[in-house]
Design brief:
The chain folds into 2 domains: 12-261, Aspartate Aminotransferase, domain 2; 265-387, Alpha-Beta Complex (Aspartate Aminotransferase, domain 1), CATH 3.90.1150. Helices cover 40% and strands 14% of the residues. It has 13 helices and 13 strands. It has a 7-stranded mixed sheet, with helices on both faces. The protein has a 4-stranded antiparallel sheet with strand order 10-11-13-12. Strand 4 (125-131), helix 6 (140-147) and strand 5 form a beta-alpha-beta unit. Helix 1 (12-24) packs antiparallel against helix 9. The structure holds pyridoxal-5'-phosphate. Pyridoxal-5'-phosphate (PLP) is lined by residues 55-57, 60, 85-86, 88-89, 131, 157, 159-160, 181, 183, 194.
Length: 388
Amino acid sequence: MFWHLQENVVTDSDLDLLVSFIRETKRFTQFEKVLEFEEAFAKWQGCRFCVFVNSGSAANLLLVAAAKELHGWENGSEVIVPAVTWPTTVTPVMQLGLTPVFVDANLSDLSLDYDRIEALITPKTRAIFVAHLLGFPADVTRLKAIIAGRDIVVLEDCCESQGACLGGTKVGNLGEAGTFSFYWGHHMTTVEGGMLCTDDEEMYRLCRLKRSHGLARELPPAQHGAIKEAHPGIDFNFLFLTDGFNMRNTEFNAVLGLAQLARIDDFIVQRNKNFRAFVAACSQYREELLILDRPGMSSFVLPFFFKDRQRKEAFQAVIREGGIESRPLISGNLLRQPFLSCYYNDQDFPNADFIHTNAFYIGNNQFVDGKRLDVLFPLMHDFFGSRS
Ligand SMILES: Cc1ncc(COP(=O)(O)O)c(C=O)c1O
């Protein structure tokens, strides 16, 4: 393979920085660098508050836990979730005693089939947890119009779509809060890591507590005095204000995050440049391929959607021979996965089923360039041309 799904995006300069930081610092676990990374990310994202955690999945779990507590959602409250996404958009809902209500994907931005949502809303619906997939921004404006006047919030999983925008606003700033993943195949990396972004101060406060066992000392120092006074009988350093997790990340990961964040805009430009060339190449084969392209996108990968399943399998074999690695599109139709199969039926998820059987993707990142595309495009030309 010469073109892998994921590549080492940690550069020599990142490594040098890490080595000198490790030699100098006396603090390895969450401390000043984490705070500095949160502030830098908030500035880049254009939001008020950020909470750095140890994965995108942790950010999703933290978000749903905080939203549940903040809004007082009872167990069994319903959250509308996508049928196509990474499992950890959905699993926090189940793990926290809420009920997932699955909606089919759409085939224009891959998120939710907007036309099916209204029928799924019940008096128990509390949230829509939308995932912006493969760098395509979901139409949150449309979601908000559907839920207008109801006590339902929008939560955003942006783990695959850092830097994507809807009408000029970055995804993650469109709902109550958004989450990002810095796993090493993503737009930027902290090797493992995730971020939760919000403009809501109460949400931020709760997330800081829950990230770290529920400990009061995790709150901004300006708030400590009043809390100490309210709980005089408990040592402030061991005062637990709510239930929590340990989702903290380390100072090393934050140092890497700061270095990568300084280059993220360039990474996104290169990814989108590759994507534009890819779309131009695919558009010659519209008879066989469905082409997805959205304004404001921030390309995650290069996806193929074949109208015919056998042709998809044949082409996947061709590129494998050509040294290009590919994989199913995210996790396919999630409801076909064993742990969710009780939610599956074969009428309500035609688009998710189509994605499951007829789509795959190959990698895109800042190392993908004209040289690689010059290998891919002739393979496409030979394959699609051979049909006619
Ligand atoms: C849509 C989506 N949500 C959540 C995650 C989880 O992120 P992490 O791997 O950092 O836990 C991913 C991971 O790729 C993802 O694609």
